[in-house]
Amino acid sequence: MTNVLEIKNLAKKYDNFALKNISFSLPQGMIMGFIGENGAGKTTTIKAILDIINYEGEIKIFGLDIRKQATKIKEDLGVVLDDMFFPEILTPNDINKAMAGIYKNWDNQLFNNYLQEFDLLANKPIKTFSKGMRKKLEIATALAHHPKLLILDEPTSGLDPVARAEVIEIFQNVIAQENCSIFLSSHITTDLEHIADYITFINDGEIVLSKPTNELLENYGLAKCTAAEFKKLDSQDYLKYKKNKYDYEVLVPDKKAFKRKYQPAVIDRITLDDLMVLMIKGDK
Amino acid sequence: MFGFIKKDLAMIKSNFKLLGVLLIVYIAMGFLGQMDISFILPFLSVMVMISTFSYDNYNKWDAYAVTLPDGRKNNVRSKYLVTILLIVVMAIATFLLTIMIGYVNKEPVNYSELLIHMLGTIFGTILVLAFMYPIIYKFGLEKARIGIFVAVFAIAILGTIIIQYCDLTFLGKTFDNLENYLITLLIFLTIGLPLISYFISLKIVKKKEY
Q1: Are strands A198-203 and A31-35 parallel, antiparallel or unpaired?
Q2: Per-residue confidence at A177, pLDDT binned at 50, 70, 90?
Q3: What domain range is B131 assigned to?
Q4: Interior angle at CA B58, CA A10 and CA B56, nearest 5
Q5: For B77, phi and psi rounded to 5 degrees?
Q6: Which pLDDT score is estimated for B36?
Q7: Which residues on chain B are in Cβ contact (under 8 Å) with A50?
Q8: Nearest of B62, B14, B68, B55 to residue A99 by alpha carbon
Q9: Residue B33's pLDDT is what?
Q10: Could you report the predicted ipTM of this complex, rounded to two decimals?
Q11: Which of A69, A236, A272, B163 could form an SS bridge with A189, CB 3.0 to 4.6 Å?
Q12: For residue A246, what is the DSSP state?
């Protein structure tokens, strides 16, 4: 399967933070969820992918080096960034006219369709929009030139559950109809469990894991055990643990093998939230 | 690039009313024979465009622009082109209005003097643009404002010292010799300075991280 996004040994150093040796890839037609706590390096990674910051390492999009063929690549990228967009004195109409002069494939009709679908008035300045409406406008702008890869930084933040569901459905439709791929960072991990084919987890500037979502949710588990049971565990069989008031929560990478070895262990299905919390806050 | 120009024009459309009102004030003052304010209109065009940097900065447009095709280059190019376009349009408008006012008031119009005045106004305002834009791109609008204030203050003090303590008669002679080439020189500088300024700004923006 062809990779639309390939990152090898990406590094970026700041005074108080560094991205260290980031490597992962996104196959064509797939959705990758990019998760991690605040300050873990999600936005810095996205900025490097989009050529907003300088970096060491190699980033290829559609098989091309972003530093060498940025213009060609960006024609086929749709972008939603956390807090960067058109100046708020402009209206969606202004954006429509401007983007028609920026992207070769800009689709006026499609943009207007999204505005209608999202109930956004075309002639109102962005400054009159709520946070959720702004986010919808950013999404409409990212989608209206038929991009082959969407790079989305927190695209559902500020949206209510109904709007979130609406947006996620649109992403799924885009994937199905346009053969597009999506790389999205989000704090709302329940959304990602529904739509992401792959999950990449970053912590303190390092990739902790990058796996297919199915594999992750099927293989990983959350074992609950008493203090006595915990003492009998081989530390090779779990990744992290958290001591609660009455029990231990243990993150296991292979729940079937764990269950076979420690019968009758109680293992719950893991959520991405559990995974994040234990990987970041858990002990080893 | 036209998309970036459309975006910048859309940002200043609310200021068109202000520029229109000033044109009317200019006409009224011309008819009343009051002081000449023709230099204000092109100068105001630069000020109006500089205000767009504030809006861009507030919504981090420059970072977003980088994600668009040829975003770094066209974002800078558009700012220069729209500003120069506005300056030239406003200078030509005041030029034509001055002729019209002279015609209505039945006063003789010195066309060559008026032309030099218009070119001088365009040159002066383009000088402001050529000086300010690279500073804005390098340090941001807020720091650039302080920097420009300090620079103007330093130049004023330095100028006063030079005038008081140095013999500048040779400069007068040099300018006398240049008189015949003044218009050519003005045109050359009016085209050359913004070009140099543009390439400096572009170099700054190409290296910039957001």
Answers
A1: parallel
A2: confident
A3: 2-207
A4: 85
A5: -60, -40
A6: 63
A7: 66-67
A8: B68
A9: 66
A10: 0.89
A11: A272
A12: S
State yes or no: cis peptide before A264, omega within 30 of 0. yes
Smallest CA–CA distance, residue B97 to chain A, in Å, is: 32
Interface of B with A (CB under 8 A): 1-7, 10-11, 14, 52, 55-56, 58-61, 63-64, 66-71, 74, 209-210
Q: Residue B2 is nearest to which of A74, A85, A101, comparing CB atoms? A: A101
User: What is the mean predicted confidence (pLDDT) over A113-132?
Assistant: 92
Q: CA B67, B69, B74, B78: dihedral to nearest 10 degrees?
A: -90
pLDDT score recorded for residue A182: 95
Which DSSP string corresponds to chain B? -HHHHHHHHHHHHHHHHHHHHHHHHHHHHHHTT----TTHHHHHHHHHHHHHHHHHHHTTHHHHHHTSTTHHHHHHHHHHHHHHHHHHHHHHHHHHHHHHHHHHTT----HHHHHHHHHHHHHHHHHHHHHHHHHHHHH-HHHHHHHHHHHHHHHHHHHHHHHHHS--HHHHHHHHHHGGGHHHHHHHHHHHHHHHHHHHHHHHHHH---
Distances in whole angstroms, Cα of residue B160 to Cα of each of B129, B154, B155: 25, 10, 8
User: Which residues of A lie inside 8 Å of B (Cβ-Cβ)?
Assistant: 47, 50-54, 71, 74-75, 77, 79, 81, 83-91, 94-95, 97-103
All domains of chain A in start order, with CATH: 3-210 (3.40.50.300), 220-281 (no CATH)
Asked whether the beta carbons of residue B11 and residue A97 sit closer than 8 angstroms, the reply is no
Taking one residue from A and the other from B, the number of pairs with CB-CB distance under 8 angstroms is: 90
* pLDDT band at residue B34 using 50, 70 and 90 as cut-offs: low
pLDDT of residue B160: 81
Pairing of strands A56-61, A3-13: antiparallel
Q: Residue A70 in contact with residue A78, Cβ under 8 Å?
A: no
Question: What CA dihedral angle connects A260, A263, A266 and A267, to 10 degrees?
Answer: -10
Q: Report the mean per-residue pLDDT for chain A.
A: 91
Handedness of CA B146, B151, B157, B160 (dihedral sign): negative
Q: Report the number of distinct structural domains present in chain B.
A: 1
Nearest CA in chain A to B55: A87
Identify all chain B residues contacting A89, using CB atoms and an 8 Å cutoff: 11, 14, 55
Q: Please judge whether A100 and B3 are an interchain contact, meaning their C-beta atoms are less than 8 angstroms apart.
A: yes
